[in-house]
């Protein structure tokens, strides 16, 4: 009898956790189905996002009309900087606002042993990915021909591809903030300084020489910087500009990029300075010379690191319960 009573007390005192009964693939299948249904049923939020992307592209298209004049150099850099900043802001803000609410449900269900962290995370990321890709394609498909960026199918596809990857990495930053923050209010409070730092050190607003040493690592982990650099290289390489008599002239897009400390290789398609690349987050990745490829890989590194941090944060945040003790005998 004493052993049975002790077992009952231990069962009451133990946390309400048990190993998930279904296998990891079955958990993923069920969770993905639920997450995908949630995405497809949210018609009004989806419509708002589409209108947001279309209206933003139309605003840019109504303001920017690019040609081969000298003034269009600054216009191109300004436009691509705004595209990178806007995509980051929308993706991070949208994720930070929604994920903490989902996290509360996840913690409750995961504490009961219904499913594991990895199946939940994969199902969420893969269910949201088509929406992010579609929104990026809508925005880029309207913006690119409307403003007069380079008329090249390959450059257009690279623009869409990098814009989509940039949206993914920015959403990953928002996921990481939402997972690490203890509440939605805390996540929203963390978001502005993170975005502001990425905007300041985007490679366009301040030169590397003027950057204080203590924060010189920030440009290397800024999704805004890598998105802007990749889009700029894609657009400016191969361009030639008209020169006015007796006025300063930048004849090529490569020369314009050098003013931003982006030095292209001999092929003019993104080969860069090995030493400069080695200072960034890609110092252990092969082929650091290719600047467009370097931007793509940097976005991928940011994506992977933020996903890993999100998984780590979700795995460490388990619901805790106070241990119950048997009532003392009177």
From TrEMBL:
One of its GO terms (molecular function) is ABC-type transporter activity. It is a multi-pass membrane protein. Residues 26-235 form the ABC-2 type transporter transmembrane domain. GO terms for cellular component: membrane. Its main location: membrane. The keyword Transport applies. Keywords: Membrane, Transmembrane, Transmembrane helix, Transport. The chain crosses the membrane at residues 77-96, 129-147, 159-180, 186-206. It is found in: Membrane. This is ABC-2 type transporter transmembrane domain-containing protein.
